[in-house]
Amino acid sequence: MTPSPATPTAGVPYFDISDPAFSVRSEEVRRAREEGWYARTNYGLAVLRYDEVGRLLKHPKLAQGSARWPAHHGITGGPFAAWWANWVLNKEGDDHHRLRRLLNPAFSRRMIAPLVPRFQALAGELVDGFREPDRCEFVAEFAEPYAARVIAIMLGLPEEHWREIARDSATIGLAMGVTIRADLPRIEAALDRLYGYVDEAVRDRRREPRDDFVTRLAQAQSEDDRLSPEELRDSLVLLVFGGFDTTRNQLGLGMRTFLDHPGQWRLLAERPDLGGAAVEEVMRVAPTTTWVTREAREDFTFEGLDIAAGTTVHLFTESAGTDPRAVPDGSFDITAERPPHFGFGGGAHHCLGHFVARGDMSVALPLLARRMRDPRPGGQARWLPFSGNTGPVELPVSFTPDQGVSA
Amino acid sequence: MRVVVDLATCQDHGQCAIAAPEAFRINDAGALEYDGSPGEEHREHVEEAADVCPVQAITIED
């Protein structure tokens, strides 16, 4: 993120978004959204309303905003910088499209659908394994192992390695913070271990191809083009890292949202077919990715505002999703028709793994609703800041166990 | 080959234009334009476009 010369402009709200106390769901953001479509921040602009977020997300003058993040912190060489530069997310134009063309088919709905029953069985196993019959620490006992084991299932890694996958992904997550430089040795050690896992999986599939995700990526081909060995391992590690944190956080946010809406939770238990709609509604009001970052490629004017080349633009997904101009009724309702949310970003950089995330969460939530009746807070929760990528770190929940009596 | 995009569902993400630039394109205004009857030689790409569309708005009718 480039600190842009944000000259205070009279009448335009200002947020310090790097303050841990700043919250995208605060009253000040709600108020600013009523005053206008954008605010200024210490790192460029914040866009607050549904219509403008939707249009800027796919605006041709904006590029994805994270490519130069390591360089801004003095990290220009070494394994981490090389990995980052190879992310499909951090490429633009033809280089991006080529990589995306090779990666996309393995993530299509048709390819992911056969794994969904396995995800559902995993959700059941985890609830069976809760230490107590009527309470759990939802993050440690469900969201974290579920997210990590879904990735192990995708990659065909031994599921008992889930703790290492979780720990190393979390360590790499430190790279998103402002202490990236100090944390670099730990980050690179975690990266090295994840490379070890994916290299082994690739070696195995090259020796003995299977009908699975890693084999499909290893064999991915577009005309005469293929992923290079580096692109393949970099993309697989990106999948581990990009899929783990987000899914864990989004499940925690889902659970927390439903604690406030017990009627909706009961409905979901009775109507598992609403699982997909429940995921969309949760991501509309409580997305883990609270903003999507873009950067202006060149000077341009949008809705009368001059935006200079290099300006960082934060598209506030939650503020857009709860914008009364787009969703006037203000309720949380898994049966309502809603406009699409922006929790998976959009445009050329739309989340690559969204069919996986949608598939795994849409079976997990109804199963939890059936097994954890009448859930309520079971103690003090701990949270990441409500900015950047958010979610609960600890979420104790008490509930009435399902008696196994089907209605 | 006949291709139909449900424009009420389409969100102009442009993944189809990445998969099958012969049939789909995002114009300078950021909106989808497409060829409803692309040549048979593009079938593989167009099927891939339908497959990867995030909102599954593309139907190949024959």
UniProtKB/TrEMBL annotation, chain A:
Pfam hit, one: p450
Gene3D superfamilies: Cytochrome P450
Annotated keywords: Heme, Iron, Metal-binding, Monooxygenase, Oxidoreductase
Family designation: Belongs to the cytochrome P450 family.
PANTHER family: CYTOCHROME P450 YJIB-RELATED (PTHR46696:SF1), P450, PUTATIVE (EUROFUNG)-RELATED (PTHR46696)
Stated name of the protein: Cytochrome P450
The organism of origin for this protein: Actinomadura yumaensis
TrEMBL record, chain B:
Amino-acid biosynthesis listed as a keyword: no
Pfam family, one: Fer4_13
Gene3D superfamilies: 3.30.70.20
Cofactors (names): [3Fe-4S] cluster
Swiss-Prot/TrEMBL keywords: 3Fe-4S, Electron transport, Iron, Iron-sulfur, Metal-binding, Transport
Main function: Ferredoxins are iron-sulfur proteins that transfer electrons in a wide variety of metabolic reactions.
Name of the protein in question: Ferredoxin
Protein species of origin: Actinomadura yumaensis
Lineage: Bacteria, Bacillati, Actinomycetota, Actinomycetes, Streptosporangiales
